[in-house]
Amino acid sequence: MLVIAILSNLNKMICQLNHHGIFLRKPSLAHNLTFAPLRIRYFHCCRPAHCLKLESSVTGSRVSRVVRTEAQDVLFDYLHCTRSLDLTDAEHMSKNSPHFLQKLLSEVENEQDVTRSLSKFLRYNPINEFEPFFESLGLTPSEVSALLPRNLIFLSDDCAMIENYRFLYDYGIARSRIGRMYKEVQAIFRCDFGVLGSKVRAYEELGLSRSTVIKLVSCCPRLLVGGVNSEFVMVLDRLRGLGFENDWIGAYLSGKCSYNWQRMHDTIDFLEKVGYSEEQLSFLFKTYPELLFEGSGKKVYVLVGRLLKLGLKMKEVLSLFLQNPQILSKKCAKNLWQAVGFLFEIGMEVEDIASMVFSHVQLLCSYSLKRPETVLKSLKVGREALCQFLKENPSALLILAAKSKTNSMEHATFHNASKHFEKTKFLLRLGYVENSDEMLKALKLFRGRGDQLQERFDCLVQAGLDCNIVSNMIKQAPSVLNQTKYVIEKKIDCLRNCLGYPLQSVVAFPSYLCYDLERINLRFSMYAWLRDKGAAKSNLSLSTILACSDARFVKYFVDVHPEGPAQWERLRKSLP
Asked: What is the rounded CA–CA span in Å between residue 481 and residue 478?
């Protein structure tokens, strides 16, 4: 009873303190003390009052950047220092799980000192680490909820998953791709130690490069279930037989698509039976790789089915394919069915449409057509009249209804995919890891084809810089290669012959090559004048002169001399 009395008095004293509230339940008759859960309402704020206006309520739908940054730091400290997660994993999880962070912040009720209160909350309330982990892999909250393991909250409790995740990441697969892989095939994350590595090496032993294997298993994680996929091996062997290199397939794989390797193999077989020779098939797939990689050959069968439904016989369909392989392309097929729809809408009979398709397929594939209503309105004729006219003059369809008459044939090729592939090969030579986060960012930053980027890179090497040094420079300032070779050469010449700086000075400040020549000449002319007047130090770095803002440059390089402003204006007017 003495203990109960002391606790009762203590509770009264605490309740009188500002900004604190602790509630104790009444002791039971059995003399067992039970305490209601401690509910933290307010904490003293140790920061100056002027900082508080930067914060917004953490329980609201929006969280200020300051609050979010503080919460990320607290979560990182908890994951890395308290839970002993790998530093890079903890940092990635804390910065790439916004929904979980919002949920965590909601536990701090209208709190101003987020760092202190959230740290205290995590000290007594361990989190389910799988939630921020899965979200940081690019999964949505609903997907995360469905994938959470039962009876586990610590990542360290699922050693197999973490071990396989780290292997895939270290191998070069981006975290966002790993998240999709986990969602599609969780079985690969339950492999025993070293098993997943042996599966990946088995595909490398087929003659595929590491970059191709990365893309392959990212797009088709089921290939890592069981042994080497026999259907994939059959497709690879058939493509080799047609003269394709092992890594050709990697250029056209997309993480947005799924692939049916058996259907791909069947498509190649079907086209061979149509009558295509190996040379024709090779040319067909090089020109229209989407035949295999968009729908895994499904579009070929869809096209055949539609032509048969239209009334053509199988022999006629096969003859069309053999004589007009372009109709297998996405663009031409689209134009063909648009033309068929046009003819239907103006009332042409199915037999007449089939006859026109068989005899004028190249014509119908050539252009995208206007809508029938637009054509009828412009010609001021009825549907029957137009239908009869086109029966007698099929070639007039393009004259009357084509949207564009600039090109005789429009082919849908994978130019974008080829461009992407060449750029990827260039970045791999620079040292980027295939499908890594850095690679994905670099692909967006670099502009131009792979051969253009290589030409600009070689320009810097030929100027006298080491290849490895240039690689590091480009990683620091990617926009250097977004300029033409001529512009880069001109800036190097300016550096050496006009400014009097050695070429090695750009190693420390590669962004020099990103500034326009007008800024370079104007600022260095002003700096040279000041130096001659004894008002500036000699041999200042390129970054000191170029990187500062205009206001800062005027303050430190113009206004420092009485005649500086006048000279600055003269230079601005005289330089082109």
From this structure: 6
pLDDT in tens, the chain (576 residues): 433 443 344 344 434 433 333 333 333 333 333 333 333 333 333 333 333 333 334 444 567 788 888 889 999 999 988 898 888 888 899 999 999 998 888 887 655 788 888 888 888 888 999 999 999 999 999 999 999 998 899 999 999 999 999 999 888 888 889 999 999 999 999 999 889 999 999 999 999 888 888 889 988 999 999 888 999 999 999 999 988 888 888 878 877 778 889 988 888 888 887 777 888 888 888 877 877 887 777 778 788 888 888 888 887 877 777 777 777 777 888 888 888 888 888 888 888 888 888 888 877 887 788 888 888 888 788 888 888 888 777 777 767 777 754 333 333 333 454 566 677 778 777 777 655 667 777 777 888 777 888 888 889 989 888 887 888 888 888 888 888 888 999 999 999 898 888 988 888 888 899 998 889 999 999 999 998 888 888 888 898 899 888 888 888 889 889 999 999 999 888 876
How many angstroms separate the CA atoms of 114 and 102, rounded? Answer: 12
Question: Residue 179 corresponds to which tokens in the numbers above?
Answer: 């998240």
Of 331, 384, 386, 336, nearest to 357 by C-alpha is 336
Tokens at residue 99, please? 């929904």
Q: Which two tokens stand for residue 333?
A: 């097929």
Tokens of residue 372, six digits: 């029938």
Which amino acid is residue 303, in one-letter code?
L
Token couple for 240: 């080799």
Please tell me the distance from the alpha carbon of residue 472 to that of residue 103, in angstroms, as a whole number: 40
pTM for the complete prediction? 0.56
Q: Where are the alpha helices (DSSP H) in 225-381?
A: 230-241, 261-274, 278-287, 290-293, 298-310, 314-323, 330-345, 350-359, 361-366, 372-379
Q: Cβ-count burial of 574 within 10 angstroms (0-12 exposed, 13-18 middle, 19+ buried)?
A: exposed
Q: How far apart, in whole angstroms, are the C-alpha atoms of residue 179 and residue 133?
A: 9
Q: 3-state SS of 48-80?
A: CHHHHHHCCCCCCCCCCHHHHHHHHHHHHHHHH
User: Are the CB atoms for 64 and 55 separated by under 8 Å?
Assistant: yes
DSSP 572: H
Identify whether the C-beta of residue 230 lies closer than 8 Å to the C-beta of residue 224.
Answer: no
CB–CB of 485/451 below 8 Å? no
Beta-carbon count within 10 A of 142 CB:
8
Q: Which of 463, 459, 456, 571 is nearest to 518 (CA)?
A: 571
